[in-house]
Amino acid sequence: MLALVSPAADSTNTTLDTLLLRNGDSLDGKLLSIDPSQVLRWKCPDVAEPIEFKLDGVSQFDLHTSPPADRGNNFPCKVSLTQGDVLEGGLVSCNRDTLCLQTWYAGQLKIPRKDVQSIYFLPTTPDIFTLIGAEGWTQGKVEGLPNIESGQWIFRDGAFYADKSASLARDIKLPDSADLQFDLAWNGSLTLSLALYTDSLQPILLADKDKAPKFGGFYSLRFYSLFVDVGRIKPMEPLVYLPPVVVPALSQTNRVHVDIRARKKSNTLALAVDGQWLQVWTDTNGFAGEGTGVRFVQNVTQGGTSQVKISNLRLAPWDGVWETDPTNAPPANQDAAWLTNSTTVSGVIESIADGKLTVRGKKDAVEVPLGRVRRLVFALQGEPAVELTASVHATFAHGGPVTFKLESWAADGVTVRSPIFGEARFDPNAFRRLVIHPPDSVASSGTNGLR
Q1: Which of 405, 435, 402, 399 is nearest to 84 (CA)?
Q2: Is residue 181 domain-shared with residue 263, that is, in the same domain?
Q3: Which of 29, 142, 194, 211 is exposed most, by the fewest CB atoms within 10 A?
Q4: How far apart are CA 114 and CA 131, in angstroms?
Q5: 241 shares a domain with 335
Q6: CB under 8 Å to 286, separation ≥6 — which residues?
Q7: Global pTM value
Q8: Residues 234 and 221 in one domain
């Protein structure tokens, strides 16, 4: 579905959108409009006139948009709703009835407090994430696999590309508690491995790992076209694999945002894809990683074709506070606030206004400067909102999901209707992917390789 740039072919157009029909056909081009009668107009580069489709015959479209980096000037945050949506913006206010969020993509949204599950306040330091560039990487030759042609990673236009089996490693000084993010795109079969907390800049043939030059323990995250698993790799010890996690997005598209968290103190690794936390692994044998580097290994199987692209690789220290509860546990019967000094305040959140959070405990109300708050979790106040039929499940360009009924789409705005925030007009640049559910459906949401 996605045309990756071949390092040897400058003419490849990577700015086209992709339309996927329910019959399995796909078209590259540009989304022009969707009118209120649910007719979609699509412009293909090799067809003179736009092509019209009924929206109920469309399964999905992927968009190459350029959203601004602005996350809101007034207490930037991610608001997680009870039915799974995640909205990003600047928090204006919140009382016992309504939360008000200022966004660049839809103006001001008013959300019933009963539909808010949690609020995560983004770090305000502009350079909290360090962008990992092209310098300082070591190319490693993939050897030991029969009839597999080895190649190299190519850096171009801000991204790394590989279309043959190849290894790329660098000591990026991973902290003991880290947040590593990148955008991943591929053509063909997805067979990418990521070594975390490695001290070796050369790939390790797992079948002969005990014969390899001396290396310290590391974790190997293996990305396939349906799932991801984690291997605990240490010399002179048996290979141990933590439970795999099914990642539906890896079989539904070929362009995702990956977020990996690691924390040595709690022996944990966690994985999010497109803003949704899918798995938290706890290593009961202790944290295996003994280095501070990463290594990407593209594994092309015999007779297979695969091209992979890694871009926007970023690293930040992590304070251990989650945007959302990765275990999906419901909140307790009290509201709770996690502060930046790792303490917790619980009770009833009465209001958020004028830069202050007011929480009423059993005896007194406590005021906390909002700048000291990292995450809020609200007690459930009733049943989550009923999910729409004939709905669209969209993915924001910066990550999280949002669900709505699509009324119309034009170059100057997208009109949507939500059971949570009502009618709103979104900027088209807000979205990276839209999955269309038809009216009659209800939306629901190998050990011998080199690692």
Answers
A1: 402
A2: yes
A3: 211
A4: 38
A5: no
A6: 267
A7: 0.72
A8: yes
